[in-house]
Structures are given as C-alpha cells and as structure tokens.
Write a structure and sequence with these properties.
This protein has 215 residues and is α/β, with parallel strands linked by helices. It has helices at residues 11-19, 21-29, 37-49, 108-123, 150-167, 190-193, 195-214; strands at residues 9-10, 53-59, 62-74, 79-89, 92-99, 132-137, 142-147. It has a single domain, classed as Alpha-Beta Complex (Lambda Exonuclease, Chain A), CATH 3.90.320. The protein is 41% helix and 25% strand. Strands 1, 2, 3, 4, 5, 6 and 7 form a seven-stranded mixed β-sheet that branches. The longest helix is centred in the last third of the chain and has 20 residues, at 195-214. It is globular. The relative contact order is 0.17.
Length: 215
C-alpha cells in the first residue's frame, strides 16, 4: 500500500532527508519528533532569529535590505517553508540560513539553502539566477558561502524527488549502514528509530531465510 503524495515538502525536511532518509520519514511522514540538547539549542536559536520583518542598513553609498523569516513556496517544486533571512544588495538576492552547530561534512545544509534559492528564483524571476547564499554556524561563529552550482541544483532536485517518493511509502527506509551510520550517534530520533536493533533483526532474519533455503 502506498500513501498519497503530499502537496508540499517542508524546506527543513530536505535537510533531514539528506542527513538520513529514515529520519525524514519519521519526522515528515509520521510526524514524530524527539528532542535532545542539539534540537533544543536549534529551536531556541530560531526563536531569536525568526522574527518577521524588514529593515535597511546603509554603509556609505551601499544599501542592504534585509527580509527576516520570509515564507517561500513553489508549487512546481512541491516545496514550502521559511527562510531565516534574505539579503537584497545591488540588485541581488542572497538567502542566509542560521545553524546552531558547526559546519558538517555533509550537504544537508547546502541542499536546504539551495532549495530556498530555487523557490526565490520562481517567486522573483527578475533576480534569477541566484548565484550563492550563506550559512552562519553559531557553533564556530563562521559564515560559509554556498555557491549554487549546477551540481548542487541537480542534487537538490534529486532530493526533492526522493522526498516525494519516500512520502508515499507505507514503511520507513532501513537505517543507515557503514560509514554513514556514524550520523546516528547524536540523532534525537535514535530512541525511536533503534538503528542497531533493526539492523540486528534484519541480519538474523537473513540468516534464518538462508537456513530455510538450504534445508
């Protein structure tokens, strides 16, 4: 049995998907959310950052317009969600995403930011293409520029397609394995996901099936 396709995928859900498809399924499809210290820190951070509004700053002859907590939506892309901050400077739009931790080795933050840019380009075609955005990591006080290359845009489209596919499935995908399983260590959903236990059961089931075939 398959579920109905959702009208939209949350921008933040693409981040979860790129980190772990099983996490995406629990959070987005089943609506399960468990909190650990990292999730709570991130929630408190966005309570401070996500204040809707608009303001302008001028430095010499240069003027920058800031749009905070801007709602984005794309029907063709099946995406919706909030952008932390959009900067408008010299005729260019630059999305900015805030993260409470440090820069990771994965592309989940990059995919989320690129999806924001793609929604902005649809909403404001006069600013397209948007060349880059920024991710500010509070854990390292570092502002990282993310170029929206063709490779990243392709990866983002693939993530959207995967999200829509998983959202129609009646059961979650299997836990991460091998090197990717290191991501499970600090995941807030580990008590619900039980990756080690699920993989162990699957392993025992496989052994039992092999024994049955050999009898």
């Amino acid at each position: 049995m398959k579920l109905d396709e959702p009208e939209t995928i949350a921008l933040s859900a693409l981040n979860a998907l790129e980190y772990c498809p099983r996490r995406f399924y629990y959070e987005f499809v089943q609506g399960d959310m468990l909190h650990n210290e990292f999730v709570l820190e991130g929630s408190l951070l966005h309570e401070r950052v996500d204040q809707p509004g608009q303001h302008t700053e001028r430095e010499g002859e240069q003027q920058t317009q800031y749009y905070q907590h801007l709602y984005l939506y794309s029907e063709p892309l099946h995406l919706s969600g909030m952008a932390d901050l959009i900067e408008e400077e010299r005729g260019h739009l630059v999305p900015v995403e805030y993260k409470h931790g440090k820069e990771g080795r994965w592309l989940n933050d990059h995919v989320q930011l690129c999806a924001q840019a793609m929604c902005l380009e649809e909403r404001c075609p006069e600013y397209a293409p948007i060349a880059f955005g920024y991710i500010y990591y509070y854990g390292s006080r570092k502002r990282v520029q993310v170029p929206f290359t063709e490779e990243l845009r392709t990866k983002t489209h693939q993530s959207i397609a995967q999200a829509l596919h998983l959202a129609r499935q009646a059961t979650p995908p299997p836990p991460l394995t091998e090197k990717r399983a290191a991501r499970c260590r600090d995941c807030s959903l580990r008590p619900l996901c039980l990756p080690d236990e699920v993989l162990m059961l699957q392993h025992h089931k496989g052994d039992h099936d092999d024994d049955t075939l050999s009898d």
